[in-house]
Amino acid sequence: MLSRYARRKLADVVVRSACVIATLIALVPLISVLYYVTVRGIGGINVEFFTELPKPVGESGGGMGNALVGTLKLVFLACAFGIPPGVLAGVYLAEFGESRFGRLVRFSADVMSGVPSITVGIFVYSLVVLQAKHFSAFAGGVALAVLMLPTVTRTTEELLKLVPESLREAALGLGVPKWRATLRVMLRTAAPGIATGVMLAVARVAGETAPLLFTAFSNPFWSSGLNEPTASLPMNIYNYAVSPYEEWHRQAWAAALVLLLLVLLLNISARLLVRSRVGAR
Amino acid sequence: MSVSHDISPLIRPRSKILTRFGREVNWGDFIFRRLTALLAALLIAALVAITVAMVRGSAESLAKFGLGFVTAHVWDPVRDVYGALPFIYGTIASSLLALCFAVPISLGVAIFLSELAPAWLRDPVGFLVELLAAVPSVVYGLWGIFVLAPWLRDTVEPLLARTLGFLPLFQGQQRGFGMLAGGIILAIMVTPTISSVSREVLRAVPSSLREGALGLGATPWESVRIAVLPYARSGLIGATILGLGRALGETMAITMVIGNRSEISASLFAPSYTMASVIANEFSEATGSLYLSALAEIGLLLFVVTVLLNIVARLLVWRVGNQPLGGSL
């Protein structure tokens, strides 16, 4: 029979170990995914993979050059449509956001960040694709931008609020108009943090598949311009993974490796950006 | 930090305009405020537009099937009869199963990271857990098809059938692809959400509560149990609901492993189908306006449910850190 004290000590040790074990279990899938994607994907990576079009079923070789370019196009469009309005809306929330309207905007942003990405796909389908009567990179970019918008807005707001008011006061005291003080002093000071948030948002949408299903769709060939159905790495991974062909599975793993590297690179460099700032202080 | 810009070029003679009340306003400020307000309004407009688009898209189906849509279980595009029950069941069951796995693990992670881990370990481990959220859904799906499902089929499911096979949950053909695989993959994907929100919630608990408990001789676990968890409860429930919202709307990974068959089965080994999956699989190939409309109605249901869950969750999370300390303090 344990003493009361020993029992309490035991409970403490048990729960603490349970927490450690839970953390380890949570990391097992990450390690497994990284391991399998690397091991199975590395064989499919060669120059051809980055430059060639996919080969038809039955022929080996070929690559995903078009999907790689397509993903870059989509991400570029998403940034072009999503970042400027997002940042400026964030500026509004930080500067003038304590009104009823500001609270409504903040609420909408929070709600929108929880909207399933497939719903956004249907929305952009009815907004853009139905009007244009065809799938396009443009529609895909809009869908990804809609997904980015709330994150970019809220990040900008949060980071602007961290900038010391004294900087603004110094600028205003020198006779700078308020809007210039906001843009040139406040926003510039918060820029590295905002860049981090934006990079994380970009990393998130770069891997999105569901909103592209009925917007950018996919394309076995090179697409010119922004007005055609466009292949992307996530869509190709999906289509190839659910196909019954061995050769396509190999390509899917290789594409997954490239996509994962792209996303992890964005994530890690975003965090390093923050860390270097903190370290410099 | 230094802001060492020469600001002299920024200072120009001001051109002034008057507001309605005769107050002087810098024209730049005037435009700036209205421009940013317009872009902020874009967020509200987008949310309204999504709602309108979803309702309009599903109008035909709403009119034809009414409330019966959610209780009918026949989904037959050939005869143009649509009922969403199997998808609703699949979505709810897979998400709840995911929470069964993810909530204990996430709470463990959050408590470890905010209360127990040594300071040098917190950031690296927290970063790794967040990387779990950075892996694209479709990559989890690929891993699910070629790694998780075969493992479940060859190892886990036979084991469960041997030991717990008397329960209807663990009977039937062992395919690997099915409810169990779907639940596990969703659990992996919502763990970072639940654990990072929970960690924030635990951080918002005033440290005086912890110190009080420790000062009275509580062990670290007792201080968490007696002082921290009760204060954080609503926030932790909020974190769980946020995770649930994520799980309900998750599309690609679960589409790739759940088997995509519109059956309602008690067995975790059986294939199932979720609302998001049926949209993903059938929307771009749907012919006929009623078919498209029925799919859009599923999207509408998903949208409404996730929005409501998000609102509730955010209110709960917000309450922690904004609530008064207990009367005795």
Task: Report what the structure shows.
- The complex is a heterodimer of chains A (281) and B (329).
- Helices cover 76% and strands 0% of the residues of chain A.
- Chain A has 2 domains: 4-44; 48-280, MetI-like fold.
- The model of chain A has no long low-confidence stretch (mean pLDDT 91).
- Chain A is globular and about 70 Å long.
- Chain A has helices at residues 4-41, 47-51, 65-96, 100-113, 117-132, 137-162, 165-173, 178-206, 233-241, 246-280.
- Chain A contains 10 helices and no strands.
- Chain A is mainly alpha-helical and 281 residues long.
- With 329 residues, chain B is mostly helical.
- Chain B has 2 domains: 14-57; 85-319, MetI-like fold, CATH 1.10.3720.
- Chain B contains 11 helices and 4 strands.
- The longest helix of chain B has 32 residues, at 85-116.
- Chain B is flat, with a radius of gyration of 26 Å.
- At the A-B interface, helix 1, helix 3, helix 4, helix 5 and helix 6 of A face helix 1, helix 3, helix 4, helix 5 and helix 6 of B.
In summary, what is this structure?
The complex is a heterodimer of chains A (281) and B (329). Chain A is 76% helix and 0% strand.
Features:
heterodimer; A: 281 residues; mainly alpha; MetI-like fold; 2 domains; 10 helices; 76% helix; 0% strand; globular; B: 329 residues; two-stranded antiparallel ribbon; two-stranded antiparallel sheet; 11 helices; 4 strands; 68% helix; 3% strand
Series of H and E elements of chain A: HHHHHHHHHH
Q: Which structural class do the helices and strands of chain A define?
A: mainly alpha
How would you state the average pLDDT of chain B, rounded?
A: 89
Tell me, what's the shape of chain B?
flat
> Mind telling me which CATH architecture of the largest domain in chain A this is?
Orthogonal Bundle
Q: How does the major sheet of chain A shape up?
A: none
Report the strand count of chain A: 0
